């Protein structure tokens, strides 16, 4: 599973982000088709669903710790960062609900459809706003640094959705050591 989370060239954060968005879209489409065909949750959905959860939890956590801070400080796009984090928060709440639903099969198709819409809209929003900003205003060396930080955080992220992570105390307890390591690495390289 970590192969998917860590997939993509470390050359450029835009490549890593794009690859992960594409992978998430592919899994969502696969789940969508299965649900449309059988109108319920099936055993074959467990693998893709688990991969999707892991991918998205890691992806969003890494964006919140590596991409959005750059957006806020360096690129002075704080309002955009806040809007996108709000969308992620809503997606995370839906995902936490979905994860708890394994016993309540009836609600799963509707909850999955709502989650899919939220995730697709969020990915598109990022692609139309954040990606061009990174491309135009972050030099390649910076994007490469962001790519390695992003993959590092993604690899350490929790594997389940928490409705409030990582901005909650729980999320920060898990990701705190990761942040500290990134800060140390940054300080060392910027000296
Ligand atoms: Fe995101
Ligand atoms: Fe994203």
Q: What does this molecule look like?
A:
- This protein is mostly helical and 191 residues long.
- It has a single domain (2-190), classed as Four Helix Bundle (Hemerythrin (Met), subunit A) (Up-down Bundle).
- Helix content is 77%, strand content 0%.
- The protein is built from seven helices and no strands.
- It has helices at 2-5, 13-38, 46-72, 78-99, 108-137, 140-156, 169-190.
- The protein is elongated.
- Mean pLDDT is 80; it is low at 1-9 and 165-186.
- The chain binds fe (ii) ion (2 copies).
How is the main sheet built?
A: none
Report helical residue fraction: over 70%
Percent range for β-strand residues? under 5%
Average pLDDT confidence is: 80
Global morphology = elongated
Total separate domains: 1
CATH fold call: Four Helix Bundle (Hemerythrin (Met), subunit A)
In CATH's first tier, which class applies? Mainly Alpha
- Going by helix content, strand content and strand pairing, the class is mainly alpha
Distance separating the two termini: 36 Å
H/E element order: HHHHHHH
> Which ligands appear in the coordinates?
fe (ii) ion
The CATH architecture can be given as Up-down Bundle
Gist of the model:
This protein has 191 residues and is an all-alpha fold.
Blueprint of the fold:
Layout: H1 2-5, H2 13-38, H3 46-72, H4 78-99, H5 108-137, H6 140-156, H7 169-190
Helix pairs in contact: 2-3, 2-5, 2-6, 3-4, 3-6, 4-5, 6-7
The structure holds fe (ii) ion (2 copies).
One fe (ii) ion is lined by residues 60, 63, 84, 88, 122, 126.
């Amino acid at each position: 599973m970590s192969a998917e989370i860590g997939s993509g060239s470390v050359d450029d954060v835009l490549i890593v982000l794009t690859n992960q968005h594409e992978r998430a879209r592919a899994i969502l489409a696969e789940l969508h088709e299965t649900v449309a065909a059988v109108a319920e949750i099936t055993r074959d959905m467990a693998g893709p669903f688990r991969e999707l959860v892991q991918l998205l939890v890691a992806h969003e956590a890494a964006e919140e710790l590596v991409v959005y801070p750059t957006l806020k400080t360096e690129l002075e796009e704080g309002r955009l960062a806040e809007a996108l984090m709000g969308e992620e928060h809503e997606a995370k709440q839906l995902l936490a609900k979905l994860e708890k639903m394994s016993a309540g099969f009836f609600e799963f198709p509707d909850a999955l459809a709502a989650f899919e819409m939220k995730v697709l809209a969020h990915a598109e929003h990022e692609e139309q706003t954040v990606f061009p900003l990174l491309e135009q205003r972050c030099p390649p060396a910076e994007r490469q640094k962001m790519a390695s930080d992003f993959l590092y955080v993604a690899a350490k992220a929790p594997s389940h959705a928490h409705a409030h992570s990582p901005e909650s105390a729980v999320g920060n307890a898990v990701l705190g050591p990761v942040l500290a390591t990134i800060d140390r690495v940054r300080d060392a390289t910027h000296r």
